[in-house]
Amino acid sequence: MKRIEAHRAAILRSLACAVAAVGILLAPGVAHATPSPSSIEKQIDEQWNKLEPVIEQYNNVHNQLLKNQAQLNKIDKRLAPLELEVNLAMAQVGTMAGQAYMQGSPSAMKAMVVSGSPTGLTEKLTLLDQLSRHQRESVSGAAKLRDKLAGDKQDLKALTDAVAARDKALAKQRKDIQKKVDDLQKLRDRAYGASGASDGAFKTGPCPVKYTNDKGGRAAQKACDLIGAPYVFGAEGPSTFDCSGLTKVAWAAVGVHLEHFTGDQIGEGRAVSRSDLQPGDLIFYGSPVHHVGIYVGGNTMVHAPHTGDHVRMASIDRSGAITGMRRPG
Questions:
Q1: Less Cβ around it within 10 Å: N or C end of the chain?
Q2: What φ, ψ does residue 220 adopt, rounded to 5°?
Q3: Range of the domain at 43
């Protein structure tokens, strides 16, 4: 009986401890407060400013790899017929040389009949050398071009292999990049929910603010038409974009080629001042530069902000200090 009472007392003491623990957990001020949307947005911006340069670096390296591979294909297409031409010509040299050695040339045979003296081995070898030299000279242009292209191919192949190795190394980091991207999305969902609208409506007014029918105005209109498309890093359409992919597609619509890399785009066209901004001008952010938007008038741009967001209108002062402003075309 005493043992039962002691056991019951122990249980009551355990329950009392548990209740006390629950009371502590529920006590005011102990539970962690949910971070405010503004504080999480600040964290997103800080992390994204670190992440976006890595993404842009990948874009740059991968773009260079594709260009090198395309150039190698062009060289291969030019080399193949040249190689065939040279090989056929040299095969003819061998055939003609064999015939000359066995029979001599027509002129040599005629001389032998007239003079009655046979063509000696030395003379036949000399004739062989002359025929061979003549045939080689007739294809020397093709052979020189072939050798030059082969040399260019070897140099480009070495460069492409190096770029491919770097591209592969960056590709291996994509899982890490994606994890960071996913973490940013989780932060964003905590702040704004899963609706995908972190800054309200994607359009804040007419887009472009004032339409002009020049190249810049039409490029700005193309960017406006893409508002609402999801951000995907490394994408340049047709339905998803990152920042430099968006500006590339917008200007491609008016026949102006931009590379899919902010570091290249900031070197395109000419520099403009803030007071001289016109629809279509590119606005760059970061040092080194890693973000770009396209001006649509009224101190407003269209840009692809970051993962989890969409192409949208925003103030040109939203993304921090402006690094540069350029007018392509």
A1: N
A2: -65, -40
A3: 39-174
